[in-house]
Inverse folding.
């Protein structure tokens, strides 16, 4: 294929990608995909097909909600994009475009994980994401992969993704250390750490806190993200609090790691007001685990109920003041 033919095909694929909603009634995309796009995406021998594979990945993402509703076509499309991602000798731009458009295929209203993503494909997809993370330096690109991992875990469901959770958790501490070394006051690094906390929140919910090693490295992250003395709490607090609550909800016993977080909780009670509701929920979890000697269960329940009533009243007054000012 000469350069002119390649550029023509590249332009046609780009136009078809952008006009997917307008061409869906006139183009047999599943047929074109199987007859032309699959062989072209698998051709690694010709260097000129590198740019074409990027267009193919964009095509699959653009047509995912338009004309890719049958299970066989969507499963094959996911397999093509996962293959692009996991091939380490592939151009990095192609792998990133495949990652971005794979999310469109999975995070779709008609995605059916039971029939469109078998266990072997889940395994290959997660391994491809973890492999791609090691090849990236830019925070924005790493966030792209972390978001895809979160979507995979959420959409596939706890029962089917549970065997792969340890594989993901094994890489989290390394990613956290890398993000910390990149720049302690860099906002982009805080964004990456926020993405890690969001992914951990999903993993904790899926695994129900059954992984024994989870608390040992997650609790120090929570302590760092919720410390009022750290600049990081400005960017990470909203993501760390739900993770903290998830750990407590799924914990069987109150471990030393969870107990070590209590001083930070008391500090937040004294300082913060924006997250008071979540902080009170954390306090409730701790008291349920181990009621203090100076409180009986009944007094505690009345005390907590009273606090919630006060919070509701305070919010109602603030809302009325806003309406009055408006």
């Amino acid at each position: 294929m000469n350069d002119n033919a390649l550029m023509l095909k590249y332009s046609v694929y780009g136009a078809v990608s952008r006009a997917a909603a307008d061409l869906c009634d006139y183009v047999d995309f599943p047929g074109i995909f199987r007859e032309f796009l699959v062989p072209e995406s698998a051709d690694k021998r010709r260097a000129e097909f590198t740019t074409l594979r990027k267009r193919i990945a964009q095509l699959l993402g653009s047509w995912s909600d338009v004309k890719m509703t049958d299970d066989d076509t969507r499963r094959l499309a996911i397999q093509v994009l996962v293959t692009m991602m996991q091939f380490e000798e592939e151009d990095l731009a192609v792998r990133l475009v495949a990652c971005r458009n794979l999310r469109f295929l999975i995070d779709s209203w008609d995605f059916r994980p039971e029939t469109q993503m078998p266990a072997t494909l889940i395994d290959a997809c997660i391994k491809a994401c973890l492999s791609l993370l090691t090849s990236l330096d830019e925070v924005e690109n790493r966030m792209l992969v972390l978001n895809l991992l979160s979507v995979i875990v959420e959409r596939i469901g706890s029962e089917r993704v549970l065997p792969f959770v340890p594989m993901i958790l094994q890489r989290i501490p390394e990613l956290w250390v890398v993000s910390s070394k990149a720049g302690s006051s860099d906002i982009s690094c805080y964004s990456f750490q926020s993405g890690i906390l969001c992914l951990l929140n999903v993993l904790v919910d899926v695994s129900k806190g059954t992984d024994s090693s989870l608390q040992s490295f997650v609790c120090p992250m929570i302590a760092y993200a919720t410390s009022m003395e750290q600049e990081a709490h400005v960017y990470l607090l909203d993501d760390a609090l739900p993770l903290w609550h998830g750990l407590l909800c799924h914990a069987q016993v109150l471990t030393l790691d969870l107990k070590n977080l209590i001083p930070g909780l008391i500090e937040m009670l004294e300082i913060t007001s924006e997250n008071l509701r979540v902080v009170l929920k954390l306090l409730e979890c701790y008291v349920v685990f181990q009621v203090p000697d100076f409180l009986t269960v009944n007094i505690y329940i009345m005390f907590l109920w009273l606090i919630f009533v006060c919070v509701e009243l305070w919010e109602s007054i603030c809302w009325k003041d806003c309406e009055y000012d408006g």
Remarks:
- DSSP finds 19 helices and no strands in the chain.
- Residues 297-325 form the longest helix (29 residues).
- Residues 1-140 form one domain.
- The mean pLDDT is 83.
